[in-house]
């Protein structure tokens, strides 16, 4: 039986200042179709339009290799497993069945490049020669990384999308493969735009630079991209190509370019974008639109036909849905299609990740290889570091064993190098000049296995902390049971000192900076670890010494107990140890 589901996180642009965020999950489609041959692609697209017009949601995916269905002159690999698929759904669901069955490790995928750096450099030189011959102006040359099959692909999608701010992210699953796309790029949308009813909008991305390691470097990199004539030339080539493509399906004189050379900020890169829109001429079907636009010029280069021949000559593997498109077709007639860059194709025996760059006559092979590597950082869940916040009191590390055991275990789960000797050296060095008084030691372990250390004197406070209740956000388990820099789910307005969280089952879970303890009828209780909470070092120590016991704590029971003064509420953590809580409700 086919396992079919989809999770689409797209944006629909009504105008520059009115953007609708769509976050839709679908399961158990009423209809599913695969185009097994290039000749079946048109039928697939017509079926998609039929179901959309009948009031259904449609998720449509087309690989790059479906291009000859729209123009036989476009050269691609012709041994594709399929040439497109669609899933038709009556309505979204709140969550998937068995959604909480998460994998909690990023280990054992083992990404490795298909092409050597020497091969990539040679291919870039080949492209330079093709430009000199006049066969192309720009080639979007891509290569692949191959990894082991991802066992829990939907969990991996959630890990990547938690840290990514891509506007056109999609997860599609069937029995043969799952597609994990954290793309930031819009291919096109159709529907209302700027108070006109039947418009098409496209927003190509061309021009990339890495984010800086600090604020100063980050600003420098932004300015470099913003002032880069090379990147602007690369961008405008694709803008011109897409303007020409749009003119084939648009009312005369309506093709407009706005927001030229805008810089968008992402977790690991800055991207240069431009926006083009037009009014669609009458009687243009989705097939006609794709016939004019597919594949997107930003992932081919220009001119499209001759450049795709060069791509076919250089690239040793088919692209698949990477550089094809994933579309969400809404019952109200609107369509949103992405360009699936930053996309993993998870097969039965392996996973494939494509990465590319636009090559022009000014491209430096070494710089392009650096850009390729930069674009693969997302695979390692970039910028997520481990944290330990430790109490130093009169020259001693409180709960040293618990902190060591926790960071070592978390490093293994997140596939981060951990050197036990270096860790011990960091702790011992921190003690050398802090033999008197109480201090906060914050240690951060980055993805390369390096430690960053910060020590500050800890202020004493005997006053209770104020707290407010809040429903816990849906978060990958990896970020709840490990202490990391990924703390977006703990963001709050700071109207109170801390936040007390509860889950969908109305059970108390944890504070944003500590574990929960209640005192009732002479005993101390804490929520069980099965609630997918951080197992704090203070909590571990108190459980080991049998000072506290695990018990489910119902939210309503807690509130009644506090109101009737039968329950006292505390926050515990390894830094502050015990803090009485004044809950505001």
From TrEMBL:
GO biological process, one term: L-tryptophan biosynthetic process
Domain Chorismate-utilising enzyme C-terminal: from-to ranges: 119-375
Domain of life: Bacteria
Key words, A-Z: Aminotransferase, Transferase
GO MF entry, a single one: 4-amino-4-deoxychorismate synthase activity
InterPro entries reported for this sequence: ADC_synthase, Aminotrans_IV, Aminotransferase-like, Anth_synth_I-like, BCAT-like_C, BCAT-like_N, Chorismate_C
Record keyword Cell membrane present: no
Pfam families: Aminotran_4 (PF01063), Chorismate_bind (PF00425)
Protein name as catalogued: Bifunctional anthranilate synthase component I family protein/class IV aminotransferase
Originating organism: Mammaliicoccus lentus (Staphylococcus lentus)
